[in-house]
Amino acid sequence: MQPDQRTLLASAIVLATGVLWGFYWLPVRALGGMGLTGAWGTAAITAGTVVLLLPFAVRNRRQLARTRPVALFSVALGGAAFALYSIGFLYGRVAIIILLWFLSPVWSTLIGRFLMGWPTPRLRIVAIVLGLAGLAIMLGADGNLPLPRGAGEWMSLIGGILWSFSTTGIRARSTITALPAAFIFALGAAVTALVLAPSLEPLPSLVPSQALTITGLALLTGGLWWGLSLVALMWATVRLEPARVSILLMMEVLVGALSAALLADESLTGFEMAGGVIVLFAGLLEVIPARYLRSA
């Protein structure tokens, strides 16, 4: 495959991943409607993913054994962050949950600056200010304090912060390849969901006919979203500039907001949309390639 063709394929994979994750709330809420409320649906999805990826983890067990614990923890922490994001869809509006998650570039810049000692170009300082301003406008649209309201918004915000810690650790320490990384990622998510589940909702009691349908949907969701799409994304991201990856993944915001408006009758107010646009613009500033940042 020629380099241009490889770049085009990688770009298409990242774009498709953003579109796919824009619809992720649908199976999560479908499982909730079938009785797997709270974190139980996410636990079923991620546990199914662990089972599906287990053979690949066994095949790569020597690589996993050689990987530094801090790298494994960083990948598992990413899974924990995604679990919070997933659970949040049952407790909040889809567009707000996604937009809160997309504040993660702001947290990543702060972590890189104050914990890792990485340089922070002036334009990224502007991105931080804009991101926090967008957050304040979005969450304070009704005139109240600009704080997350409800468990779902808090989960997405905390999940985005944890994701930033995770990606910082992966960037600094991890050399693990895509398939075993996806297994550790799903394992971290499954453990997190199972730990949180009893505190959010009681253990559901399901009839056998429900169990079969739920198992099928959980395996399909885990295999498609947490398995195939994430492995493909990991393959694609190492072949593209980080800026292009981040911009293409922002398709998730558009697809999520539109699908929620059309299928769940969820819409944003004018102030919420304005704050969301500012958050996305801050994300774009964050991922502008370094050669442009040096001239800022």
Question: What's the structural blueprint in terms of helices and strands?
Answer:
Blueprint: H1 3-22, H2 25-33, H3 40-59, H4 61-66, H5 69-88, H6 94-101, H7 104-114, H8 122-139, H9 150-173, H10 178-200, H11 208-237, H12 242-249, H13 251-263, H14 270-286, H15 290-293
Helix pairs in contact: 1-11, 1-12, 1-13, 3-10, 3-11, 5-9, 5-10, 6-9, 6-13, 7-8, 7-9, 8-14, 10-11
Helical stretch tally: 15
Number of strands: 0
Q: How would you sum up the global shape? A: globular
Proportion of beta-strand residues: under 5%
- What letter string, H or E per element, gives the SSE order? HHHHHHHHHHHHHHH
Alpha carbon gap, first and last residue: 37 Å
Q: Give the overall pLDDT as a whole number.
A: 86
User: Can you give the helix content as a percent range?
Assistant: over 70%
Low-confidence stretches: 290-296
> Strand count, sense and closure of the main sheet?
none
Helices and strands: which structural class?
mainly alpha
Rounded Rg: 19 Å
Protein name: DMT family transporter
Transmembrane segments: 7-26, 38-58, 70-88, 94-116, 123-141, 147-165, 177-197, 217-238, 245-264, 270-288
Keywords: Membrane, Transmembrane, Transmembrane helix
Organism: Vreelandella vilamensis
Jot down its keywords.
296 residues, 15 helices, disordered C terminus
Describe this structure in words.
The chain crosses the membrane at residues 7-26, 38-58, 70-88, 94-116, 123-141, 147-165, 177-197, 217-238, 245-264, 270-288. This is DMT family transporter. Helix content is 78%, strand content 0%. It is mainly alpha-helical and 296 residues long.
